[in-house]
Amino acid sequence: MAITPRFTRTAAIVAVGAVSAFGLAACSSGDSGGGSADGEPVTIEYLHRLPDGEGMTPTSEIVARWNADHPDTQVKATKFDGKSSDMILKLETDVKAGNGPCLAQTGYSEVPQLFVKGLLQDVADEATKYEDDFSAGAFSAMKVGDAIVGLPQDTGPLVYFYNEAEFTALGLDAPKTLDDLTADSATATAAGKYVTAFTSDEAQNWLAGQSAAAGDTWFSTAGDEWKVDAQGAGSERVAAFWQGLLDSKQTLATERWGEGFTAALNDGSLIGHIGAAWEAGFLLDSLDGTPAEGQWRVAQLPDFGAGAMSGPDGGSGVSVMKGCEHPAEAMEFNDWFNTQVDDLASQGLVVAAKGSVETPEKMLRQFGGQDVLAELATATENLNPDFPYAPGFSTLSKMNETAAAAVAGTAKVADIFTTAQDTAVASLKDLGLPVAE
User: Fold this and answer.
1) pLDDT value of position 13
2) Are 211 and 232 in contact (CB under 8 A)?
3) Integer Cα distance of 437 and 227 in angstroms
4) Which residue ranges in the chain fall short of pLDDT 50?
5) 109 and which of 253, 337, 393, 419 could share a cystine (Cβ 3.0–4.6 Å)?
């Protein structure tokens, strides 16, 4: 994404206006300790939503290792038990009051709006020191214009999950292209199977990710204005592909988080799925102890027309909040923490940092011994590096409604991208941001 200096100034002006509106200009330190000038250690507070479940390396244990080795920079990690949206509200309240944390876990799609509202700090000078530790696509997700507000933690590149045993029985290989997937869909449907599911309740992030995989960039700038293009050539290819499968009834039309998806997985009628990499941690749980256990594999997303490229579906980073008095120390910890790849993988994350990660026993069992995390790391490397989000991206959830209408036959898949276009433009304008027409 090419950002001009004019845009940077515009974004800064908008952010300053938001700071004034929220009373944030006088926000002081998010740290609970003093600086090193008085001989006391710097204290960095870190608010996160990592699961810390059974069998995982606890966040407290990871942080304790840092604290033992860094007596001058001590980190206090606090787990937020609640929804991401509730955590954002807490951060806004706390930063406004001048007692927010220095670091906080934030979803990539949330980052631009948080920055424009004046809640995040530009730490580009520090962040670039650590850029090579992360995949380019993930690192770019922490950018807003020329500003960089933190470092990436986990990713959600789209990949292809499939039942290898069922594919072999049908004489199929893992699809390499959309044409392959279209042909496989016809073969599978004739045998009473589906190699894809059209999940309308996931349309916002799922279809946006597919457009990215097709080479599109939805949000860019023209001069000092935002430019929205959710109906590019890539989106057109994605829409035509899914419309064809819906019309021919060669895809399972069901909600991803409804009973129909799991039921089709369990009865063996669903034998393939385009999904986010993070689904590998639980997608096959219902098949444990059944004859299908160990039959599934994960492969790279079929070529959507842009070569070996994937698109983002979820993921989060660790942002530096406005008012953090020790950004250099915070970013040093930020990089260290997010490169503890095996510990973070134990939390079920598809880590954004480069480096080999050991696939957990559970995944090895469920995926027939496949080195799943190595495959997912390749997908992370293949993320479209030019697919930033824009402020107000959350409002694109309206895409899900249009997707449900497409399943019902009262709308076309192309209409979903029209909804994305119109909603994104309206949202940016509602935020007072200039939009190129």
Assistant:
1) 32
2) yes
3) 8
4) 1-35
5) 393
Quote the DSSP letter at residue 367. Answer: T
Closest CA relative to residue 218, chosen from 233, 199, 237: 233
pLDDT of residue 36: 54
Q: What is the per-residue pLDDT for 38?
A: 66
Tokens of 177: 């292209």
Q: What are the structure tokens assigned to 144, written together?
A: 């807003």
Torsion sign over Cα 80, 85, 90, 91: positive
Q: Which of 304, 391, 312 is nearest to 138 (CA)?
A: 312
Nearest partner of 381 among 436, 310, 322, judged by Cα:
310
Three-class secondary structure of residue 147 per DSSP? strand
Q: Which of 18, 13, 4, 73 is nearest to 43 (CA)?
A: 73
Contact 43, 33 (CB under 8 A): yes
pLDDT of residue 222: 80
User: d(Cα 312, Cα 417) in Å, to the nearest integer?
Assistant: 16
265: helix, strand or coil: helix
* Whole-number Å distance between alpha carbons of 370 and 345: 16
Q: Which residues contact 137 (CB under 8 A, 6 or more apart)?
A: 155, 157, 312, 380, 381, 382, 383, 384, 385, 387
- For residues 139-156, one letter each, b for 16 or more C-beta atoms within 10 angstroms of the residue's C-beta and e for the rest, the string is bbbbbbbebbbbbbbbbb
71 with 43: CB under 8 angstroms? no
Enter the tokens of residue 30: 């998010």
